[in-house]
Design goal:
Helices cover 25% and strands 21% of the residues. It is of the alpha+beta class. A hairpin with a 5-residue loop joins strand 4 and strand 5.
Length: 208
């Protein structure tokens, strides 16, 4: 059984938002819901400043805080390490959203249109609403699952495929010959906030 993980090379990422848009299109997420996000920051003092993009998503933690606090068992961890939510078990208490140290979870109380009030919903938008509600439900916790349906078809997650800079690498972390494992050994990748003890399975290569 593989143990999936992702490596993001911050030297390559230039903050184009392709991963964010690919995630929204693939998962039909409504306005304000970003399973893949892009944070941007600046360090240094003028004129010696550096701007850096930081892509973030569900970290698929080996020790997920979200699962520990879930009162119904709706959040569970698969054998391949991917943390998933059973929308039929979730009671919408939002404990997991508060427990997640990476802000990776959302709850959609009702579908909202991307278009101004008063305009009719297009057939495509109706399709996206139906697709989202079928997979993720309404009033329950939702989040990234590494595009689990694509993995079952032998495909890469949408954010990996869409990245024009090849900043993202996805694969089996238990396979020492997989590309993510090789990158981690060569460049000493590290997760965000390892001191929290969640053991994220999304790693970052230093920007410089």
């Amino acid at each position: 059984m593989p143990r999936y993980g992702m490596v993001i090379d911050l030297k390559r990422c230039y903050g184009c938002y392709a991963c964010v848009m690919a995630c929204k299109v693939k998962n039909h997420t409504p306005p304000g819901v970003f399973w893949a996000r892009l944070l941007k920051g600046e360090t240094g003092t003028y004129p010696n400043t550096v701007r850096q993009a930081l892509p973030v998503l569900c970290m698929q933690c080996a020790e997920p805080s979200c699962m520990e606090v879930c009162p119904t068992g709706a959040t569970r961890q698969r054998k391949d390490g991917i943390v998933v939510v059973d929308k039929d078990k979730c009671m919408g208490c939002k404990y997991c959203m508060m427990a997640c140290p990476y802000g990776a979870r959302y709850s959609v109380d009702s579908w909202e249109s991307y278009f101004p009030d008063g305009l009719p919903i297009t057939p495509y938008e109706e399709f996206t609403r139906e697709q989202f509600e079928e997979k993720s439900g309404v009033g329950v916790a939702t989040k990234c699952d590494f595009c689990l349906d694509r993995l079952k078809e032998g495909k890469q997650p949408s954010c990996v495929l869409a990245c024009p800079a090849d900043a993202r690498t996805f694969g089996d972390l238990d396979d020492l010959e997989s590309e993510p494992s090789i990158l981690l050994r060569r460049h000493r990748g590290a997760p965000l906030n390892p001191e929290l003890g969640n053991e994220p399975k999304v790693y970052y290569l230093a920007p410089r």
